[in-house]
Write a sequence for this structure.
């Protein structure tokens, strides 16, 4: 019996050492980090955009409606580092109404309320700017970090399909497809604007 308990104690010590040395690696194998990307709010977030005219030394402001995508880690115990949200393609309908690609690549988008270009460490959810519509000038703007990489200013009626994915050092998210339909007009409230601008997830 003494030998049994000695062997059991030795085995417990051995497994404790294994867990101490390789616990993170074992946990990573059993439950690898996962990212999830989704549309934050189909109605968007109302706000204001301020402009400064250096010629007149005057500041003006305009109303706007911002739409965001949210990135979150489904394995909170292990954050995912080096994360950007990438716009992978832009599609518009052809004469028959079928979507056709007009741009493909990997353009990183900007994080909400952060002017810098640094990637995120995603443990808690973070939000990324997708697009916003301004009352004056009346236009839709996308939010790429690198200007000129994609068509980022749109006026008039438009229907577009965006494909996005969050990518980090340890994991990539699901692929998200968002359809945006805009009649080129503006309404002063979010609920009224719903008649002019429809933003929805397709997958």
């Amino acid at each position: 019996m003494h030998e049994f308990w000695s062997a059991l104690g030795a085995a417990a010590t051995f497994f404790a050492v294994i867990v101490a040395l390789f616990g993170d690696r074992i946990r990573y194998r059993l439950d690898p980090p996962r990212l999830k990307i989704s549309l934050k709010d189909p109605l968007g977030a109302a706000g204001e955009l301020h402009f400064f005219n250096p010629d007149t030394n005057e500041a003006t402001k305009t109303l706007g409606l911002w739409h965001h995508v949210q990135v979150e880690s489904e394995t909170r115990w292990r954050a995912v580092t080096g994360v950007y949200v990438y716009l992978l393609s832009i599609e518009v309908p052809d004469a028959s109404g079928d979507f056709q690609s007009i741009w493909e690549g990997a353009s990183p988008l900007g994080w909400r309320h952060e002017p810098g270009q640094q990637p995120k460490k995603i443990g808690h959810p973070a939000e990324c700017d997708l697009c916003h519509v301004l009352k004056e000038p009346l236009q839709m703007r996308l939010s790429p970090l690198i200007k000129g990489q994609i068509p980022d200013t749109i006026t008039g009626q438009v229907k577009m399909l965006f494909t996005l994915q969050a990518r980090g050092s340890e994991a990539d998210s699901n692929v998200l497809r968002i359809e945006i339909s805009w009649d080129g007009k503006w309404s002063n409230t979010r609920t009224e604007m719903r008649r002019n601008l429809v933003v929805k997830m397709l997958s």
Observations:
- The chain has two domains: 1-30, 32-201.
- The first helix runs from residue 2 to 30.
- The chain is about 15% helix and 45% strand.
